[in-house]
Design a protein that fits this description.
Elements: H1 13-18, E1 25-34, E2 37-47, E3 52-56, H2 63-70, E4 78-83, E5 86-88, H3 93-99, E6 101-104, H4 116-124, H5 132-144, H6 160-172, E7 178-182, H7 190-205, E8 209-213, H8 217-223, E9 226-231, E10 234-239, H9 246-254, E11 276-283, E12 293-300, E13 305-309, H10 316-324, E14 335-337, E15 340-341, H11 347-353, E16 355-358, H12 373-381, E17 388-389, E18 392-393, H13 395-408, H14 425-437, E19 443-447, H15 455-470, E20 474-478, H16 482-488, E21 491-496, E22 499-500, E23 504-505, H17 511-518, H18 522-525
Parallel strand pairs: 3-8, 3-9, 6-7, 7-8, 13-20, 13-21, 16-19, 19-20
Antiparallel strand pairs: 1-2, 1-4, 4-5, 9-10, 11-12, 11-14, 14-15, 17-18, 21-22, 21-23
Helix pairs in contact: 4-6, 12-13, 12-14, 13-14, 14-15
């Protein structure tokens, strides 16, 4: 444990509930400008001891900027911050941690080749992963909070759920009184979510404060005591989420009535030769820490959506690379498209056949961050749209296509000349999805299409995928969001440790059964 201000024990629940406590954290009129953008506009917020407080808003609403300010990653242009009743400056994360502010990021910040104890030691800034006292403290906290961990295990050997436990234990080692959690359930199975919620409720009952960021509105209702909603950088509402509905919370976020995506499923043709067939595919992972495929078989017909569930790190990347052609298969006949063997056909050849792909990583894989939207449209669609003739690029046509995508998918941007990195995550995702759909594919493969995307953008993306299937295309969606898969899929399969389960009609299975499969309990779910 560090012997600084953060080592003060949290207040007891009885003391907190017995009187009106001084806010643990108070922000007043916090404002932050970026070039061409007012990210936070006079934001005021109180966080009380012993509560789980939700921070809600669409992508681009200012949540990330606000959290970075209170954790010392960004400096506010104006406004004040009070910590337990006294004004403070938070110029860097070290100061935040010394005050008692901890953060568990959406994307894990762990060194894959180091042990659990080494990663904790690096965060504490003292000692090594071989220190007996450190190892004992990790074990004690792990046992106390039901976060089973072996301090000596190497991180790349851990499941995603175990890695999140490392992040939480590492945070708890600093005895924080305020813990910020950014999309903590996006990579967890339903069972792991239940376990995490138990831990968070216990931390709240100890008197700690949890600031919880999630786009899963039912989670907010189930877990959080209060919610603050941001829109356009401003606080527009606060509420008790337990008395709201997911629709009413979404309406507060987007400023209008919200009906969500159309719930009617795409109608499968259910006859004829499958559009895509995979038979007995075994393929090595490209990364030494990746998961290889083991005898994978699947099929998808025109007019249907096949959903593939699974906890991250179970072979999704290897499967997506094999289906998109980014890595070719050892045998040509392991993958067939419209009856033709394509296992050794690369990504360009498959695009020419009518297969388009939406990767999980928006920046760097789905788009080039520093290129404009029209240039990013050109990179993916130049052959399908005929944007290059005799070696010459038609810049005007590329601009027109980008503008068509922006208009059709309601992409909020500064226009087709805006750099991809300037868009919020949700708007960039809508652009990438729209770019692929407007190429009129026969088959679209989409990885985590709404991960970290706000409710409005997620509904637009889900509706677009369903409409594409209704138009006669095949759609494969790889996602960790079971609600999403059950809403848009005709059939769902689960990938675990490189194995793919038999697909089941979504109307004939349950989220609990799929959750068991995601945990590798194939026999229990059968």
């Amino acid at each position: 444990m560090q012997s600084d201000a953060s080592s003060t024990p949290p207040a007891t629940p009885s003391a907190i509930r017995g009187a009106q406590a001084t806010p643990r954290l108070r922000l007043r009129d916090v404002t932050k400008h970026f070039p061409g953008c007012l990210a936070n506009d006079r934001v005021s917020l109180d966080l009380q001891p012993g509560e789980i407080h939700a921070l809600l808003g669409e992508n681009g609403a200012g949540k990330s900027t606000l959290v970075k300010i209170l954790y010392g990653v960004q400096l506010a242009d104006s406004g004040t911050i009070e910590w337990e009743g006294r004004p403070v400056d938070i110029p860097n994360p070290g100061t935040a941690r010394a005050l008692g502010i901890g953060m568990v990021f959406q994307h894990f910040s762990l060194f894959e080749t180091l042990s659990v104890a080494d990663n904790v030691a690096l965060a504490l800034g003292s000692g090594t992963g071989r220190d007996t006292s450190l190892i004992q403290e990790i074990s004690r906290l792990s046992e106390e909070y039901g976060l089973a961990l072996d301090p000596g295990r190497i991180v790349h050997e851990l499941s995603v759920g175990e890695r999140q436990r490392v992040e939480i234990v590492r945070c708890l080692m600093q005895n924080p009184r305020l813990i910020v959690m950014d999309e903590p359930t996006s990579v967890l199975t339903p069972h792991e979510v239940t376990r995490l919620f138990s831990v968070l409720r216990r931390l709240r009952d100890e008197g700690r404060t949890i600031l919880y960021i999630s786009h899963k509105l039912q989670e907010i209702r189930d877990l959080c005591d209060r919610a603050t909603i941001l829109r356009g950088g401003k606080v527009v509402a606060s509420c008790d989420p337990r008395v709201e509905t997911p629709k009413s919370l979404a309406a507060l976020m987007i400023g209008r009535s919200f009906d969500g995506p159309k719930s009617d499923k795409p109608v499968s043709t259910g006859a004829g030769v499958p559009l895509l067939e995979v038979h007995g595919l075994s393929q090595e992972a490209a990364s030494p820490f990746g998961t290889s495929l083991k005898n994978v078989s699947l099929h998808v017909r025109a007019g249907e959506v096949l959903g593939i569930a699974g906890v991250a790190g179970n072979g999704q990347n290897t499967l997506l690379a094999a289906l998109s052609g980014e890595s070719v298969s050892p045998r040509d006949d392991w993958i067939k498209f419209e009856g033709k063997s394509i296992g050794r056909v690369g990504a360009r050849g498959r695009r020419d056949m009518g297969i388009t792909f939406v990767p999980e990583e928006r920046l760097g894989h789905g788009s080039v961050p520093d290129l404009s939207l029209d240039e990013n449209a050109l990179l993916s669609g130049w052959r399908r749209w005929g944007l290059v003739r005799r070696g010459l690029i038609s810049r005007g046509k590329a601009r027109e296509k980008a503008e068509t995508v922006i208009e059709a998918f309601n992409v909020v941007s500064a226009g087709s000349s805006a750099a991809a990195r300037s868009l919020s995550g949700g708007n960039l995702q809508k652009f990438i999805i729209g770019r692929e759909i407007l190429q009129e594919p026969k088959l679209l493969i989409a990885a985590q299409p709404t991960w970290g995307v706000d409710a409005g953008s997620a509904a637009a993306i889900q509706t677009a995928l369903m409409e594409l299937a209704r138009s006669g295309a095949g759609v494969i969606v790889v996602s960790q969001d079971l609600d999403e898969l059950f809403m848009i899929s005709d059939r769902v399969a689960v990938i675990f440790d490189g194995h793919l389960s038999e697909s089941r009609p979504t109307h004939a299975t349950t989220a609990e059964e799929v959750g068991l499969l995601m945990g590798g309990l194939f026999e229990a779910a059968s």
